[in-house]
Each structure stands twice: as structure tokens, then as C-alpha cells.
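Q: Given only this backbone (115 positions), what sequence would you predict?
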């Protein structure tokens, strides 16, 4: 069965950095578009960044220039490097794997940006 396991969340001060990881298993990782989404309390789940099987990336305007998505197909892992974090980045961050009609989600990892 497909599993996506996120890690790396936590509490960080404004201006700080975190690196999220998502380890995938049970799928042919290299063919999937991988993504990070986030959901703040009382809000919908929104796109943060995606990376295609060929390495093309896409970012939400709110994180451009601060966040970087990358993938390591040898390790079946996708990363999200988050710099210059702001309180409004506080949310549960979810990993997503998508190809054609297949769409899988991780359980989420909490990121809290607060002084």
C-alpha cells in the first residue's frame, strides 16, 4: 500500500527555517508529481509547491523566493526547504503524490511560526 510519511515540522521563530521531508513507499516514486499543501485552522487546504517527475516546480505566490521544493528519486523522498518563515506560514503541511487518476496524501506535520 502507498504510504507518505512527513517529518521535520515543529515550532520556529519568525525569520527562521525548517526543512520538511516526505518519504514515500509503495509506489513508483519517480513518475509521480509530488507536492506540498498546507491547511491553517478554519481554512481550506492550499497548494504550497509542486515538483513534476521531470523536476519542474511551481509555487504559491505567498512562498515564492522563500520556499524550495526538491526531490531525491533514489531515496523516494521530497523535501520542502522553508526560509524566512512568517507567522502566517503556520499550518499543517501535507505531502501529496499524484499521477493520472492516482492521488495520495500523507498524515501531515504541524509547522508553527511564533515568537
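A: Predicted residues:
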Amino acid at each position: 500500500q502507498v504510504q507518505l510519511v512527513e517529518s521535520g515540522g515543529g515550532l520556529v521563530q519568525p525569520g527562521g527555517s525548517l526543512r520538511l521531508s516526505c518519504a514515500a513507499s509503495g509506489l513508483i516514486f519517480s513518475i509521480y508529481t509530488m507536492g506540498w499543501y498546507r491547511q491553517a485552522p478554519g481554512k481550506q487546504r492550499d497548494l504550497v509547491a509542486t515538483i513534476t517527475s521531470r523536476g519542474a516546480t511551481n509555487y504559491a505566490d505567498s512562498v515564492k523566493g522563500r520556499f524550495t521544493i526538491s526531490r531525491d528519486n533514489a531515496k523516494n523522498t521530497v523535501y520542502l526547504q522553508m526560509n524566512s518563515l512568517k507567522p502566517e506560514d503556520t499550518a499543517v503541511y501535507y505531502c501529496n503524490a499524484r499521477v493520472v487518476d492516482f492521488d495520495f496524501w500523507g498524515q501531515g506535520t504541524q509547522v508553527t511560526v511564533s515568537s
